[in-house]
Design a protein that fits this description.
Layout (H helix, E strand, L loop, with lengths): L2 E9 L8 E6 L7 H11 L4 E5 L8 E6 L4 E2 L3 H15 L4 E7 L2 E10 L2 E7 L4 E2 L5 H11 L13 E4 L4 E6 L2 H4 L6 H11 L3 E6 L9 E7 L4 E4 L3 H13 L9 E8 L7 E10 L2 E9 L1 E10 L1
Parallel strand pairs: 2-3, 4-6, 11-12, 13-15
Antiparallel strand pairs: 1-2, 1-18, 3-4, 4-5, 6-7, 7-8, 8-17, 9-10, 10-11, 12-13, 13-14, 15-16, 16-17
Helix pairs in contact: 3-5
Length: 300
């Protein structure tokens, strides 16, 4: 019988029961894909991360991510949670861990301060797909309960990715953002057509100087009706804003805070930092806090 050391951690917040909850199994060596899927289904978070020992000399460990329905290549909030749990479990000092993911080996920085931790996740290569055609755009707007007049005209509807793609939909109003009339089934069907499971609706309609955007993310095709605070949406958003020349920046760096989870009372903040070369996003990092909800053991 194996005892799995398991955490539930809220990411992108220091307030319990806010932010985005993730499961973390810190000693996943020996688990099968089916066992990981069953654990993720049982914990029923949008993602659960599984930490394995290193499988080669070029990395410090392996991390895999499962939703309740399927494995996904990468996940922002579950990475923050996993590195936070690992830091607590091993009483780590500030360090950088190179972790193997399904999208390659990525450096994750753990910052120790005042006997607590923050985590910086370097995300995968940024990619931006062409703007949606008019027919696809209309299907998307109908499924989200939006009109064309709700759209922010400076924001093209495109798929952006740092390893786990999201459709970027910029709208004018935060009130409208919090009052979307969704058809989750239609969104799931559309995902098969566009080959993208996540939809990130965002707005610049912010009443706080230190918050650039508010957003909501939906991925019903992989069992996520609404994700509270999404690292792999806010990170690609940074690249999207730079490549489309929607925002200004200085000294080849663009940094902002994205807030998410307002409508479902799970507020959290993602700090996004984009390093820029030749006016294009080169490296995208997200930084976040975390807080433990519980630690337990699962015997299997």
């Amino acid at each position: 019988m194996k005892k799995l050391i398991t955490y539930q951690i809220d990411s992108f917040t220091k307030e319990k029961f806010k932010g985005n909850p993730a499961g973390v199994v810190v000693n996943a060596d020996g688990l099968s894909d089916n066992e990981m899927q069953l654990v993720a289904r049982e914990l029923n978070n949008s993602e659960t991360a599984f930490l394995f020992s290193s499988d080669s000399d070029d990395c410090d460990g392996v991390i895999r991510y499962f939703t309740p329905k399927t494995e996904v290549p990468t996940c922002g909030h579950a990475t923050i949670a996993a590195m936070y749990a690992k830091a607590l479990e091993e009483n780590l000092d500030s360090c950088v861990l190179r972790m193997r993911t399904k999208i390659g080996i990525l450096p994750f920085e753990i910052i120790k301060k005042d006997e607590d931790y923050q985590v910086i996740m370097t995300q995968g290569k940024f990619e931006l797909s062409p703007t949606f055609d008019s027919e696809t755009t209309q299907k998307l707007l109908t499924a989200l309960g939006l009109e064309k007049s709700d759209l922010d005209n400076k924001c093209p509807i495109q798929i952006a990715s740092t390893g786990h793609s999201k459709v970027m939909i910029g709208i004018k109003s935060r009130e409208k953002l919090n009052d979307l009339a969704l058809n989750l089934n239609d969104l799931a069907i559309l995902s098969k057509t566009i080959n993208c499971n996540g939809y990130f609706v965002f707005t610049f309609d912010s009443d706080k100087r230190d918050i650039l955007t508010y957003g909501r993310m939906f991925a019903p095709a992989i069992g996520i009706s609404e994700d509270p605070v999404t690292g792999n949406a806010n990170g690609p958003l940074g690249g999207y804003l730079i490549q489309n020349k929607i925002v200004d920046y200085k000294e080849n760096v663009f940094e902002f805070n994205g807030r998410q989870g307002e409508q479902i009372d799970k507020l959290g903040v993602v700090n996004v930092r984009v390093k820029i070369e030749n006016d294009l996003p080169k490296v995208i990092q997200i930084k976040g806090d975390a807080v433990v909800i519980f630690k337990t053991e699962i015997e299997i």
